[in-house]
Amino acid sequence: MVSVSGFRTHTTHVHDNNQDLSSVQEVSDSFTWLLDDLPPGDSSSVETIPVIDLTDPDIVNRIGHACQTWGVFQITGHGVPVGLIDRLELQGRRFFSLPIDQKLKAARRPGDLSGYGQAPILSYFEKVMWSEGFTMAESPANLACQVWPDDYTEFCDVMEEYKKEMKALASKIMWLMLSSLVICKEDLEWSEPTEELDGSAVLHLNWYPRCPDPSRAIGMVPHTDSTFITILYPSSTAGLQVLQAHTAQAHWVSVDRVPGSLIINVGDLLHILTNGRFRSSLHQALVNQDKPRFSAPFFFGPPKDTLIGPLIKLTDADKGPLYRAVKMDEYLGLKKKHYQNALNLLKLA
Ligand SMILES: C=C1C[C@]23C[C@H]1CC[C@H]2[C@@]12CCC[C@@](C)(C(=O)O1)[C@H]2[C@@H]3C(=O)O
Ligand SMILES: O=C(O)CCC(=O)C(=O)O
Ligand SMILES: [Fe+2]
Q1: Are 91 and 158 in contact (CB under 8 A)?
Q2: What is the mean pLDDT of the segment spanning 209-230?
Q3: What is the spatial distance between Cα 287 and Cα 293, in angstroms, rounded to a whole number?
Q4: Which atom of ligand 2 is nearest to the CA of 133?
Q5: What is the DSSP string of 117-146?
Q6: Ligand 1 centroid – CA 106 distance (Å)
Q7: Which of 68, 71, 110, 165 is the most buried (most CB within 10 A)?
Q8: Predicted ipTM?
Q9: Which pLDDT band, with edges at 50, 70 and 90, does 4 fall under?
Q10: 243-257 average pLDDT score
């Protein structure tokens, strides 16, 4: 198991959110991460994560295989309008380009999921990442109207439209994933066997400003996502790396995005639901010296009050369930506090 033990701390850190990274000329100590514990990168490797077309007749097998090996893959043929993705990026860039004081009007408040600031996982670390984020768990209107009192509808309309599109796509992909394990709609008690799978939808935007010394900073520390699946729009700027962990020599692979594709990550709650058959993928984001980078992950999880444990059909007679059941909120709390050890804490002896 990969760890970032150099930074293990026992308190929850409160970071100063008020720093405007776009004006920082030097990577100071608080931004300097010594990632000496981590596996090497793939500078010369030509390896790529699986690319799967949603219209492929063999889709179920291909998705199933990708989830049991990499835990991450790219999808093409997903049908999300290019124009909508462009508008998402435009509005995201418009938000992050605002002066820091204006963005802070939407600052995430203690205990809230939504809002502007550093990634929640940062509370585990002393250091600061070279990025800023904006989380929208519900409608962004309340936050956006603080930022742009007279002019927030355009931002909100795009975010709502994109979220709706993502929710439908996430539901479709999750059914394909589960059907590869011969799980059918009746096996999920919390969802009506209707077309769309019921669940929580969280849209998040990341911004990685240009960095004077990318070798000392990290955009997003290595982590697995917590929910069922993530649909990531990584934009056309390089930076995302995933850990290839299904062979003896774990190593980082840079994601070379097929134009137009979206990236699907298996998250920890799906890892739990499938009793470990699908593995949540460890990934990180690097920063660039010459240009900033935008990315937008959409997190799809279970309905708020649903307990998620391994599906009975997937627990073997000899092994039984590997994890105890948990609700999404509790899991997000564990993740903030224990980082990559959160999943281990739920392991049954
Ligand atoms: C629905 C989610 C998923 C969250 C928490 C909450 C909103 C923000 C998401 C992220 C985004 C950045 C990485 C991460 C690790 C983080 O710190 O914040 C993610 C986290 C998780 O997957 O645990
Ligand atoms: O920026 C990226 O490509 C990855 C971001 C990410 O992993 C996340 O927000 O969870
Ligand atoms: Fe992630």
Answers
A1: yes
A2: 94
A3: 8
A4: 9
A5: ES-GGGGG-SS--S-EEEEESS-THHHHHH
A6: 17
A7: 71
A8: 0.99
A9: very low
A10: 91
